[in-house]
Structures are given as structure tokens and as C-alpha cells.
Design a protein that fits this description.
It is a single chain. The chain is mainly alpha-helical and 73 residues long. 45% of the residues lie in helices and 8% in strands. It is built from three helices and two strands. Strand 1 and strand 2 form a beta hairpin. Helix 1 packs across helix 2. It binds zinc ion. Zinc ion binds next to loops.
Length: 73
């Protein structure tokens, strides 16, 4: 099982939020359109100008960290 699915199941965190945090932690993200690697904080792909993942990932990161620390919201 991929790590993000294990974390998702263990802590009851939506998988897309876990993936967002993994992208932020890795410092890079793959373009959903052309698969080019981009820095995780970019809004648009530097190769094809497609919109990359939303930048609300800082909120997701805080949400996941709180879940990992056992806090309920
Ligand atoms: Zn692209």
C-alpha cells in the first residue's frame, strides 16, 4: 500500500491532503498535464503553463500536522 494511503487510513486524513503535504515536503510537484517537474510552490507549469496544484497547501500542511499530533478540530 502506498505510504499516503497508510497515513490516510491511520489518521483519518483525506488522501489528497496527505499528498499535498508530501508534495510540499518533497519541494517539487509534477505537472498534471505534461508531467514536468516543477518546484512545489509554483502556480503554473514552467514547461506548458498549465495550472499546478492549488497553493492552499500550507493550510493542508497545518491540518495534517495537527491530525498527526492527535488534535481534533
Ligand atoms: Zn506542464
Amino acid at each position: 500500500m502506498p505510504e499516503e494511503h497508510m497515513i490516510s487510513a491511520m489518521y483519518r486524513i483525506p488522501v489528497d491532503k496527505v499528498k499535498a503535504v508530501q508534495r510540499a515536503a518533497s519541494g517539487k510537484t509534477r505537472c498534471p498535464k505534461c508531467s514536468s517537474l516543477n518546484p512545489a510552490n509554483r502556480r503554473y507549469c514552467r514547461a506548458c503553463k498549465a495550472k499546478l496544484y492549488p497553493v492552499e497547501e500550507e493550510n493542508d500542511r497545518m491540518y495534517v500536522l495537527e491530525k498527526l499530533q492527535g488534535k481534533e478540530d
